[in-house]
Specification:
binds zinc ion
Length: about 120
């Protein structure tokens, strides 16, 4: 079943909110990052693309945050492509419950578990 526009709008809002929190946290954790963000000077911090961020200036914690931010950017891109909520791997619907729990999830539970098995 396709996701309703209302649901997708809600997810897009939470994605942007999470992204905003991540950027705030990065700004708070690194002086260099704060300066870089000031240089980029977008009207909204959430407009900063994760690809614009120089990962070299981030410490371990920032790297983790940046990884999450990339997932969020990817999820937002999928909303724009009309593919949000479909597994990036097998194309099956991910399910509203799973999306509500993790709005930036890109894979269905089966594919994620298969990946984790392989990683072990
Ligand atoms: Zn899948």
């Amino acid at each position: 079943m396709a996701l309703s526009k209302k649901f997708i709008d809600k997810m897009e809002k939470s994605l942007l909110a999470i992204k905003r929190e991540i950027i705030d946290e990065l700004v708070g954790s690194s002086k260099e990052f704060e300066e870089m963000v000031t240089d980029l000077s977008p009207k909204d911090l959430a407009d900063i693309a994760s690809d614009d961020i120089d990962r070299k200036m981030l410490e371990a914690k920032g790297q983790t945050l940046l990884k999450r931010m990339k997932l969020i950017d990817a999820a937002i891109a999928r909303i724009k492509q009309g593919k949000y909520g479909l597994c990036a791997k097998c194309g099956k619907p991910i399910g509203e419950k799973r999306l509500e729990a993790i709005p930036y999830v890109l894979q269905c539970i089966e594919c994620k578990e298969a990946d984790e098995k392989r990683a072990r």
